Amino acid sequence: MTNREKAEKLLKQMTLTEKIGQLVLCAGCNVDDKGVPDSFDLVRLLKEGKCGSVIVQPQDMSYATDFMQKIAVEESRLHIPLFINCDMIHGFETVFPIPLASACSFDTELVEKCAEMSAKEAYACGVRYTNAPMVDISRDPRWGRIAESQGEDPFLAGEMAKAYVRGYQNDDKYVMATLKHYAGYGASEGGRDYDIVEMNENTMLNTYLVPFREGVEAGADSVMTGFNALENVPISGNKKYLRDILRAKFGFNGIVISDAGSINEMMPYGVCRDIKECNEKAIAAGVDIDLGGVAYPNGLEESVLAGRVDERLIDEAALRVLEKKYELGLFEDPYSKKDKRCVFSAEHLDLSEKLAIESAVLLKNDGVLPVAQSDKIAIIGKFAESKDLLGCWQNSSKTQELSTLKEAFYAAGYNVVGVSSSYDNKSVEQAVKDADTVIFTCGEYSEENGEAHSKHRLRLTTEEADCFAHLKAMNRKIVSLVFAGRPLIIDELDCGALVYCWDLGHRTADAIVKLLSGKSNFSGKLAVTIPADEGQLPIYYAKKKLGRPYQPENSAWRFQCRYEDGGNEPLYPFGYGLSYSKFKYKNLKVANNTLKMGESLDLSVEVENDSDIDGVEVVQLYINDVVSEVCRPIKELKDFKRVKIRAHDTVVVNFSLSEEKFKYYHIDGGFKADSGEFVIFVGSDSNAADFVKIELTD
Questions:
Q1: Domain range spanning residue 653?
Q2: Catalytic-role residue among 60, 259, 639, 674
Q3: Can you tell me the distance from the alpha carbon of 128 to that of 54, in angstroms, rounded to the nearest whole number?
Q4: At which of 307, 327, 347 does a domain end?
Q5: Which residue, among 508, 518, 511, 432, has the nearest Cα to 477 in the 3D structure?
Q6: pTM of the model
Q7: 503 is known as an active-site residue
Q8: Domain ends where: 327, 351, 376?
C-alpha cells in the first residue's frame, strides 16, 4: 500500500474535528526539567486529536517532543503522530553563519552540507519539520529580516534555496524544508516589517518568485505564506498566488503553512469581518496548516457545517499532512533518536568555522593585512570581548560556548597589549598606546536585526564614528571589522583594511582571526549591495533599463536618472570581495557567436592568480538581453563558479550557455527566451566589464 493509499484510508476514519486538528500547529510551550509541557490545554488538544503539529525551540527538546508524541500516539483516538516543527534558520544547537552571510560564500555545496548537519541535530531530537530556508529577495537593508535572506539576487537565492532543500531533506536524516515567506515579503514598503508590498505579477515572476520556483523544483515539502498582501490581497487568502501560481504554474504539491497569525491578520487588513471569514478565505486559497493555531480551531468546522466551506477542501489539506507523515516514517517511529552525539559535535563546529571563513568579505586592504604575528595589537569596540556573535534568529542553548575576539587572538599567539570594549577616548588611548595594529570593531548586536527590527538609520553610532576618527587622527594602522546582520553605511571607515564580518555563528572569532592572520584566505563575495547613503535605498545591481539612464560621463546633465545631492553608485557592489590573492581575467571567448534554441554554447575565460598566495575566486557570469518584450535588467547573474587557483597559476573556467539561461516570464505568463542579441559579461563582481556578444536564434 502506498503512502497516499494509507493516508486516504486513515482519512476515511476521521471526524471533521480530527481532520481540522491535523491542520493546526500549536505554539510551543515551556517545559519542566523532565520535558513535561506546562500547558494542560495543549495536553487536552493532543488527546482529543485537535492538534497535528507542535512548534518547539531549536535545542535539545527530545524529552518534550517525546512526551507530546506519546500523548498523540497513545492517548488520541486514531494514534496519529505529530509534526514536531522548529525554526532553525542557521543551525540547531550548532549555529552557522546567518543566511545572508552564508550566501556570500557562493558555496552551495558547503551550505548544503551545513543544512544537512542542522537536520541531523534536529532529527536526533525528534524534529522533522523546519521553517527554513527563508528565500525572500531583499534589496532594502532597512528591513531587519534581510539577515535571514539570501540577499538581493534571484539566481543566487535560487541556487541557495536548492542547496538548503537538498541539505534539510537528505535521505539519511530527513527534516522537511519550508520555503518562506511566499511571496514578496522582502519588498515591504519603506523597509518596514509587515508593511504593504506593491508589485506587478511580471516582476514577481521574474525576481521575487524565482527562488521559490527553484526550491519547489528541488523538492521542498513546504511553503510558508508571508505577512504581506500582493495585488491588495493578503497572501494567506490569495488564491491567485497560492493555487494558480505556486501549485498550477510551479507544480508544488506539498504543504502550505501560514506564518504565525497571518490568517487571522486578514481582519486588520480589512478584507475579512471576523475569524470565520479569515478561515474560509485561507482554506479556499490553499493554506493547509495554521501556524499558531489561533485561526482554524475557531470556526472552521462551523463554516463547513454551515455549507460555506466544502469539506473536500479540508480533506485535501488533511490528506497532504497525513501522506507526508507516512512518508517521513512517523507512524513507524515518531520518537526522537537516542544517539545525540552529533549534536554540537566537533565535526559540526568545524563546518561552521569553514563556512564562516568563506562568508566574511574583505572590502579593502592597503597592505595592512595579514597582521604579522610579531605585531602588538589592540582590540577596540563593543565586540572586543563580546560573545554576541551568533546572529539573530537562533535559539541554541550553547550561546556562551564560543570564543571572544580577545580570546581568539590570544589563542593564536598574538601579543594583545590593550583592549577597550568602550569607545571612550581615554580608555582607547590607553589600550592602543603600545600597539602596532589596532583592530576596531563596530556594527550591530544580534538583537538589532532580524524580525521587527526595521530601521531609519543605518550609520555607525556617534560613539563608534567619533572613536574611529580619533584613532585615525592618531595615525594608527587600523583594521576595521563590521559585525552586523545587514549592510550598514560604512563610508566613514576609511582605513587600511576593512572586513565585513556579518554574524558568523559559533566559530566567528576563530574564523576572523585565521583570516586576519593569513592562515586562511578571503574568498567571500557580497550577496547584497552596500549602499553609500540611506538616500539610495532600495539599492541593487540589477537595475532595469530606462529611457533616461544615468550617464556618469555626463553627470552634470539634469534630465537623467540621478540625484542632485549625491551619487547613484553604491559603496561596494553586489559580488564584490577581495582576497590576499590577485586575480586577473583574460581571453574571454565563445566557441561561436550564434546559439540556436535548444542547443548549448561553450564560453571560457582564463583567470590568473598573479600572487604568491593560493586562493579561491568566485567567477561570475552576467547577461544582458539587448532587446526584450518587457524592460529587463541591465545585468543579471546567470552562473558562477568557485575556483581554486594556485599561486602564479592560470586556470581556464568554462561555462555552458543554453536557452534556459535566457528565459524569463513574458507578459502572457510564458517562460521563454527572446531571439536576438545578448551581451555576456564575466568577471569578479557585478561591475564586470569584459564581454562577448552572441545571437540567440530560432
A1: 583-697
A2: 259
A3: 11
A4: 327
A5: 432
A6: 0.97
A7: no
A8: 327
